[in-house]
Write a structure and sequence with these properties.
single chain; alpha+beta; five-stranded antiparallel β-sheet; 11 helices
């Protein structure tokens, strides 16, 4: 390609890499067919080719091919699922979301979640007893705690007279040290000198047919008529039944023993509050690669606009290029703004990084890229036309128009005096 350029302008250096102009066989055939079509419709021109105009034409071709390459990269970078880097919740105070790994291939589409109830554990709240009065008489006390199929026997010896509060504190420490999944805590009455013991299961939810997570009861104490510690402190009084979390996933009912669930081994959800409405969990594409691709597209577009603004002196058809590009942007301006791409007063584009990242999170950018006849497709067609015939943007005098009343011989190299000379750029 550079040899072809140097044949016409020895001091011109192309800024394109070899990879940016490599094409498949079917793409080469499409270029060939477009040249044939252009030849049939094109009149003969008389051109005044100065060095400045030659550089302008070659710069246009380079810039058009660069923009075409950036459009392909931009469309490809977001179509792969490995680009998902975050999980964004529309209501993080109700449902927190995160990925189970750095890149989750199983999470590519938004998920709708509605939390109807949270999973909760069992709570047994003892009765208030006077804090500073003497507690149960010194003796050996036994009680059992049953958790599903496991039964735990406890034996606690009261060796001397203690106050209720002192005894409940020791009993609380005794249960907590056992490590059976039940937390004991001493609570004081807010206004009265009273205390009570509260037992809570560390796990939430219920499994099987039993509605309770644990059962606690006194064991028979032979030779003693004293009430057991469970009865004395009212530890078997259930104040909160355990329950499962109930929620919907994309409208389908679901339940879990816990307030944390994993979907498709990719998305981790943590339920924090009951939600009256559906909450959207969206895959986020928070990658610097995306920002680089969008920035490259904007820079390539701006290069063409600047070329149009700085064309050869007196060349009126430079305005044609600017009008064509601006028309494509104007048609898609609303979507561009939503994607964080703004048009400035001089018709160049700029990138708002925060708005771009937001567009990534809510899939606006993905929607824009997937439009079948949106900006990407329109801009791609325009860059192809510019690359094939950049001389269309130079002033020229029409010598004769093609005679459409008869069949013309289609010579693909008829445009060589204008741009076919640069066909090497596609080979």
């Amino acid at each position: 390609m550079i040899q072809a350029y140097n044949h016409f302008l020895s001091d011109y250096t192309s800024r394109l890499s070899a990879n940016s102009t490599a094409h498949k066989q079917r793409e080469l055939k499409a270029v060939y067919n477009r040249i044939l079509s252009m030849t049939k419709r094109s009149p003969y021109y008389k051109l005044d080719i100065s060095s400045h105009k030659q550089v302008f034409a070659l710069d246009l071709k380079d810039a058009a091919l660069s923009l075409s390459s950036s459009l392909k990269d931009l469309k490809g970078v977001l179509n792969s699922s490995h680009a998902v880097k975050t999980a964004d919740s529309s209501a993080p105070d109700f449902v927190a979301a995160s990925l189970t790994s750095q890149s989750a291939e199983g999470f590519t589409e938004p998920v709708q979640i509605q939390v109807r109830s949270l999973a909760q554990g069992q709570v047994n709240t003892g009765q208030y007893v006077p804090s500073n009065t003497e507690g149960p008489s010194p003796d050996s006390y036994r009680f059992t705690i049953q958790i599903e199929e496991d039964t735990y026997e406890f034996s606690y010896h009261v060796s001397s007279s203690s106050t209720n509060r002192e005894l409940m504190q020791k009993l609380s420490d005794f249960i907590n040290k056992s490590g059976i999944g039940i937390h004991a805590e001493l609570e004081n009455h807010p206004t009265e000198p009273l205390s009570r013991l509260v037992l809570s299961s560390l796990d939430t939810g219920v499994a099987g047919g039993d509605e309770l997570f644990f059962h606690i009861s006194d064991s028979p104490n032979e030779g003693s008529d004293l009430p057991g510690l469970v009865r004395y402190f009212g530890l078997d009084r259930v104040s909160q039944l355990p329950s499962n979390a109930e929620f919907t996933i994309n409208g389908e009912d679901a339940a879990s023993m816990h307030n944390s669930v994993t979907l498709n081994q990719s998305l981790s959800l943590r339920f924090l509050q009951v939600s009256g409405e559906e909450i959207t969990i969206t895959p986020g594409i928070r990658s610097e690669d995306t920002l680089q691709k969008v920035t490259r597209f904007v820079n390539s577009y701006n290069s063409l606009i600047r070329l149009a603004n700085n064309g050869p002196a007196g060349n009126r058809r430079s305005q044609k290029l600017k009008n064509e590009l601006n028309h494509i942007v104007q048609t898609n301006l609303e979507m561009l703004n939503e994607c964080g791409i703004k048009r400035d007063e001089n018709l160049t584009l700029s990138v708002d990084k925060d708005a771009l990242l937001k567009a990534e999170s809510n899939q606006t950018l993905k929607t824009w890229l997937e439009e079948p006849d949106g900006l990407i497709a329109s801009m791609q067609r325009r860059t192809n036309d510019i690359a094939i015939n950049p001389m269309d943007y130079l002033d020229k005098i029409v010598v004769t128009y093609p005679n459409f009343s008869r069949n013309n011989y289609s010579n693909p190299y008829m445009t060589s005096i204008y741009s076919g000379m640069m066909l090497n750029a596609y080979c």
